[in-house]
Amino acid sequence: MSLQARILVIDDEVEVGTFFRCLLERKGYRVVVATNGREACRAINAQKFNVAVVDLKLPDSDGLSLLQEIKKVQPDCEVIIMTGYSTTRTAVRAIQLGAYDYIEKPFEDISEVESLIDKALDFAGGAEERKKKLSSAEWSHIATRAGIIVGNSQAMNQLLSVAYKIARKDVNVLIQGETGTGKEVLARFIHAASHRSDHPFIPVNCGALPENLLESELFGHEKGAFTGATGQRRGIFELANHGTLFLDEIGEASLSIQVKLLRVLETGEFMRVGGEKPIKTDVRIIAATNVDLEQAVREKSFREDLFYRLDVVRLYLPPLRERREDIPELVNHFLKELSGQGTGQEIRISPEAMKIMMQYSWPGNVRELLNAIQQAAVLCDGTVILPGHLSSRITGSLNQFPRAGPALLENQPQGSPFLAQLQNMAQAKDYLSGLEDGELSRVFHLLKVLEKNVLEVMSRRGLSCPPPATIEEMEREAINQALVYSRGNISLAARVLGIGRNTLYRKLKEMQGGARNG
Fold first, then answer.
1. Dihedral angle at the C-alpha atoms of 213, 215, 216, 219, nearest 10 degrees?
2. Quick one: which of 244, 91, 264 has its CA closest to 172?
């Protein structure tokens, strides 16, 4: 960037304008100072600027409006927002609207201010592809270490750019996203990009522990605090001191736990269970939720004051269906990892199978994608995953298998070989045990298709069909299938169902109670 770069400073405090003029003119930059929105608009319409440093609060305008006006008139001008702590949320919104970064007043480190302006000047005026490379170059190696596969989607690239910038600001973050989108991975990225990266990152699932255990887990306990407390135990807030605490499924925390969390955030102090002495802690909180906390606040199931303490910066992780262009890169990354774990053979995916995966909606997001790739790799008897190796949940019509479709069923007379073969298979107890693992999976999927097609034919003929399952029966069946799938692992079953562990425990108790009463 030329030393004759022009910088526009917009701030109603004369002292701030004077500070920037002295700081930047000695470096050879040309500085124009505006004290209100009107002067700023005249300046940006009169001459070209490389960087604008804009205060969020002005007597006749606001920083966000000026940011949008600058970007409209001079798209290549990079904007740095100046803000106080109380307006951090607005500053992050500014980054999402196109600001280069934000800096808090009063300025504690002058070299940090200079460095930020120098980086913005280097960034200004570049082509979009160059800007993308410059931006990702700062955080790509951190994303790789944290396990994030970025892909090509603009949404993920912008999200990580924002996350990288706020990581260094030491403010609380609330991550919103559907189950399986990778909220903990994003939290680890923020921790790794922060000045706390050399200190602990500790995740805790607020929905996985009963209330009394969660309190002890978070705050620790003194000897004799409750039955079984045979010694003093430090809690997560103590262990995570100077580091980052990730509170997953924060919406599952009870109101009493929420009160205690609020006190820690307000005072920086807590007491162990059964303790009398307050303990200081310096912990950054990153919370995550897949529920609407604002709705929970309206329903009085989540404290409003705690919500605003956590919601200083809010980041939204897009579901996989909104970033389909990233699916090939994710698939190839997972296959590369699987190839290195087994025999060392490289496993690939056929174009036909990839096309099916691109068309699927992925309600379980990245977690479901990984699970699907692992299942397909197990079923694959070679080195190429074909459509036939994919789950029927993904393939839908299962057109890669021979289908027992309506035409086939309708053309079979009573007592046909087809019906006789089905009957023999159902009665032969040892038949299934003699099948290969991959064949068992295919049989399962084909039976599902067969059941659906039989019902369709019966309906067309006006035959009496079995009544559909009730919502309660469907829920019970889903829970039972999740437990079979997870082999009794409650945490995994809850994740598969997209609910909290406590919620699953409660539903299991209700099912047991219903069975006893029945």
1. 160
2. 244
Based on the fold, state whether residues 307 and 328 are members of the same structural domain: no
Report the C-alpha gap between 366 and 343 in whole angstroms: 25
pLDDT, one tens digit per residue, over 363-376 is: 889 989 998 898 88
10 SS3 class: strand
What is residue 387's DSSP assignment? G
Q: Residue 371 in contact with residue 364, Cβ under 8 Å?
A: yes
Task: Tally the residues of the chain.
Answer: 518
* DSSP SS3 for 173: strand
Sequence-distant (6+) residues with CB within 8 A of 42 are: 34
Structure tokens at 36: 């209100």
In a domain, 509, yes or no: yes
Question: What is the rounded CA–CA span in Å between residue 467 and residue 459?
Answer: 12
8 A C-beta contact, residue 44 and residue 18: no
Helix and strand numbers (H, E) in the chain are 23, 16
pLDDT, one tens digit per residue, over 409-437 is 444 444 556 666 666 666 655 666 666 76
Number of domains in the chain: 5
Residue ranges, the chain, pLDDT below 50: 1-2, 343, 397-414, 515-516
Domain extent for 385: 321-393
Q: What is the DSSP letter of 273?
A: B
Q: Which one, of 347, 340, 451, lies nearest residue 392 by Cα?
A: 451
Q: How far is CA 129 from each of CA 50, 125, 139, 150, 161, rounded to the nearest angstrom?
A: 18, 12, 16, 16, 15
Residue 349 φ then ψ, to 5°: -120, 135
Distance CA(377)–CA(375), nearest Å, equals 5
Q: Are 250 and 289 in contact (CB under 8 A)?
A: yes
Contact, 202 vs 243, CB < 8 A? yes
CA distances (Å), 281 to each of 74, 121, 188, in order? Answer: 46, 39, 20
CATH code for position 500: 1.10.10.60
